Amino acid sequence: MDMQSTVEEIVATVRPLLRRGDVASYIPGLANVSPDKFGMCVAMSDGEVFGAGDWHTQFSIQSISKVFSLALVMSYDYDSIWRRVSREPSGSAFNSMVQLEADQGIPRNPFINAGALVVTDRLLTLTGDAAHSIRGLLRSESGNPSVDVDRAVAASEAQHGHRNAAMAHFLASYGNLENPVELVMENYFDQCALEISTEDLAKASLFLARHGVSAGGTPFLSPNQSKRINAVMLTCGTYDAAGEFAYRVGLPGKSGVGGGIIAVVPGRCSVAVWGPSLGPNGNSVAGIAALDEFTTRTGWSIF
Amino acid sequence: MDMQSTVEEIVATVRPLLRRGDVASYIPGLANVSPDKFGMCVAMSDGEVFGAGDWHTQFSIQSISKVFSLALVMSYDYDSIWRRVSREPSGSAFNSMVQLEADQGIPRNPFINAGALVVTDRLLTLTGDAAHSIRGLLRSESGNPSVDVDRAVAASEAQHGHRNAAMAHFLASYGNLENPVELVMENYFDQCALEISTEDLAKASLFLARHGVSAGGTPFLSPNQSKRINAVMLTCGTYDAAGEFAYRVGLPGKSGVGGGIIAVVPGRCSVAVWGPSLGPNGNSVAGIAALDEFTTRTGWSIF
Amino acid sequence: MDMQSTVEEIVATVRPLLRRGDVASYIPGLANVSPDKFGMCVAMSDGEVFGAGDWHTQFSIQSISKVFSLALVMSYDYDSIWRRVSREPSGSAFNSMVQLEADQGIPRNPFINAGALVVTDRLLTLTGDAAHSIRGLLRSESGNPSVDVDRAVAASEAQHGHRNAAMAHFLASYGNLENPVELVMENYFDQCALEISTEDLAKASLFLARHGVSAGGTPFLSPNQSKRINAVMLTCGTYDAAGEFAYRVGLPGKSGVGGGIIAVVPGRCSVAVWGPSLGPNGNSVAGIAALDEFTTRTGWSIF
Amino acid sequence: MDMQSTVEEIVATVRPLLRRGDVASYIPGLANVSPDKFGMCVAMSDGEVFGAGDWHTQFSIQSISKVFSLALVMSYDYDSIWRRVSREPSGSAFNSMVQLEADQGIPRNPFINAGALVVTDRLLTLTGDAAHSIRGLLRSESGNPSVDVDRAVAASEAQHGHRNAAMAHFLASYGNLENPVELVMENYFDQCALEISTEDLAKASLFLARHGVSAGGTPFLSPNQSKRINAVMLTCGTYDAAGEFAYRVGLPGKSGVGGGIIAVVPGRCSVAVWGPSLGPNGNSVAGIAALDEFTTRTGWSIF
């Protein structure tokens, strides 16, 4: 198989889908992105990189940042985060408060917003600056020192952040935040507003395909921790379409409303795709189609 | 690795856990099983079989039968079952009606009871006798022609089946049953009352590790269908502990309240374990511990 | 005030509303009723009766029968029914199973279907024939010995009764039925299929305006029991529009999908209205408008 | 009937219940109140007042303030508040977010916290200072110019107010607040921290028994508005025990976690009771018993 051709063909194949769905519109920084963009990058575990389309263009990382905050917390603190957040699929919309109430302030998993706030809160306690730590991880793993927060997007998020503020206060009412609500919110909005390209994102995710080994060759996570993050991505990484994603793509993956998705083939490679138009569950329509095509062509489903 | 020793050591390791949790008690046929039983069998894709403990003892297959009914329906009818049942994790208890109501009679997945009733109903239409077809599949794949329904258990299920009857009538009220409620119930209770040993169960599940190829060497499912059933097992196979199971075990699996669990290592082997005492989510406590130990020792997690 | 003129004027006033909403269509016996029918009758506590429109025409009593089954059970058994059913408003659609599950098989109140099934079950135990007892009460209180079950409607209800059957099996699964599901269903469908006119219905409800005193002048219920049934009607009598009904009409009332509604002015009179077209919550649109008009004109709101 | 003796006897009767239940403990200002206090006052529509026990002792008005904020909004703005809040019983715990989410940011009624925040927000827009307006109404209707906010309680509420802050941000996320979250919260905490005695509270509630006529003899609300507030109190005034309250007491009423309850006998009198120990639904145990006794002795149930 010629991976470069494969990636190019996939990008060509999904191009007709780019205007299916809708670009996220709740903040200007996302609403103004052209739906005609599409990028894809495959980073092999040996370091080789293959890309096509707008694979060098930066976009808003949004919820994909939750994988990196979780990895950082686990790297510092092994397993204790699981006392404050579960790891079960949520079975309902990604920003729902219903289950949070039923479960007494323990979010169902670290990838719904409530759970991500708890992870960010923990990272804040561990490092003093959660968003800064995540930026540092993305920079060192991608090898690109210019990865940074889009200040306009972060400010917009804060302005339109009533729903996340509600969630944070709700968590605080159950005693499940260690830091002041405002500080957690600020870090959370910053981490979601990080800008990155599919190339840098694929590279930065590679430790999950290399059993925890970082770009520098040293262990960032243990093999066990890396496997477990992949397991959580598979069951919870694409909001309430996780079952559909496992069925069609068959890889651990995590999406964001900026239109990006990462997927991991354990032992082989990581993949990043980006297409701004989202389907009803908040995942990139063309991005999922590209990953579906990818496992069909390579046969690299984990199943 | 010496698989026979591995299996024996695992069985020895989990023995102290056998009385953790509770044996299912809603019908006599299950309640009277000794909690001290434990069996485990690994069936390799080349046909070799390794077992230890009570691996030849028969037990009630219960919900594990749902994998075989789904496989049969897909073998006859490719993909059309997904118009009548979703494939998302349920995020709530395995016998809940709440989501069925919210989703207008479309069960969340084929492994919760409501979804399994729909699959059995479809199989009944396709073959004229759903339980008979499932028994046939188990017999031919295990090579054991004496696999059969435990009539006493089936009768008890029917007697204590108000909750399932409620579910079936509820599905019927949404027009999501093709056959009379009573007939669907009868077939469903029969399929759950099939008796089987871990040896026969591991063998009968092997087609999921062999990309759909049956014991006789002919394709029973396409590789794609086999992968997809594995994906549904991973996200939905262990009630509302699917996230936990993926995190700890890292394999597609399906459990039943009889205490059995099957797990699949795609391309390599299938595993069946059986320990009657169940944890709070209805999965065998010792069975899950054995599978956790199995992936730790073999390194065969899919992540 | 001239009550006869008042009733005639109200009937004239609501006539333009008769085609607002939709006639219940789930069974032919209800679907075939003309939406242009409207009847109203006021029965004073001294026995005088005032009517207008189609006030002698019979219609299907449906859920209004639940008031009479509850009254009968309380007459035999004082207060013990409240161990098996609560008396709180349900806050959700009238046939929902969600709350029944959350409340472990104890229905929220005796006027949602689940609660009414429990009341009918109890009445069946107490009298041996629930529907027969309710018919007897309607006959003796209305003075009309020809009140009877519409057999065609009862048969249709049974044929389309999957949702109620689901509810009954669900109650049985929690041990909250004393009689076989089939027998409870049969009685329930019969009681809902009783045919009655607004004249007979207003007369039959009069004991609730007379502190429990029957048509014959003897106590059927104690004053306290009568008050309490009125309280349950006010908070729970019109499905999830009970707050709206209290706000607009300000009287205890109970509606049915046949288009009938009864209302009680304690110490003064009972009122029955009938208009087949139903609003989104299953209550007669013209019927509610007529009762609103009635309290506005008479000033007889309880508030 | 000698009302003074009646009130004294009721207070004596409920005294053994004073330590049943628990004093609200989430803020010091409430937790430090002695459970042995009990006061009761009946204010007749002609102005006469009867009291017993600690009827002159001040306590925290808490949720009873919601009746006065609603009355003020209706006095300025007739009926438009009902576009932003419903008037149906909630059927679940008083501070639940579940229904708010299901109903797209429209609270079920003005007496659950979410609904009260919307009412306070509206009053803030109408008057510029919601808490100040409510204090003014209580002062003018009770004739006691020293009714005021307990600053320590208001500060504590703010400190422990994460749950209410969550609700306010949640409402804001649906566009159902007109003023900044912080300003609405401040007014809400202030109105809940108003201190008042049963004497002043009974007098201040009298307009609801006098068809809207104020203490000064001029109309504050129309008779229709007064009736409608009573209707909302009956169906929604005591959290998710409204059905029970209607059944046992049979009067419109509103409770607060400070242990106070008001009840209205339309056309006759208003009643205020106060006992700090609360039952499982957040209502004063002795207070409800006293009101039950009151309607039993006087026969003044509205049913």
Overview features:
five-stranded antiparallel beta sheet, 303 residues, homotetramer, three-stranded antiparallel beta sheet, alpha+beta, globular, 13 helices, Beta-lactamase
Overview of the structural elements:
Four copies of one chain form a homotetramer. Chain A is of the alpha+beta class. Chain A has a single domain (3-298), classed as 3-Layer(aba) Sandwich (Beta-lactamase), CATH 3.40.710.10. Chain A contains 13 helices and ten strands. In chain A, the strands form three sheets. Chain A has a five-stranded antiparallel β-sheet. In chain A, strands 4-6-5 form a three-stranded antiparallel β-sheet. A two-stranded antiparallel ribbon of chain A has the order 1-10. In chain A, a hairpin with a 4-residue loop joins strand 7 and strand 8. In chain A, helix 1 (3-14) packs antiparallel against helix 13 (285-298) and helix 5 packs across helix 9 (181-192). Chain A is globular and about 55 Å long. The first copy, chain A, starts with a helix and ends in a 5-residue tail after the last helix. The mean pLDDT of chain A is 95. At the A-B interface, helix 11 and helix 12 of A face helix 11 and helix 12 of B.
Low-confidence stretches of chain A: none
Largest sheet of chain A: 5 strands, antiparallel
User: Which strand order does the major sheet of chain A show?
Assistant: 3-2-9-8-7
Average pLDDT of chain A works out at 95
**Residues in β-strands, percent of chain A:** 5-15%
How far apart the termini of chain A lie comes to 20 Å
Overall number of strands of chain A: 10
As a percent range, the share of helical residues of chain A equals: 40-55%
Q: What radius of gyration of chain A results from the CA coordinates?
A: 18 Å
**Annotated CATH topology of chain A:** Beta-lactamase
Report the CATH C-level class of chain A: Alpha Beta
Assembly type: homotetramer
What's the architecture of chain A, going by CATH?
3-Layer(aba) Sandwich
Largest interface: A-B, 32 and 32 residues
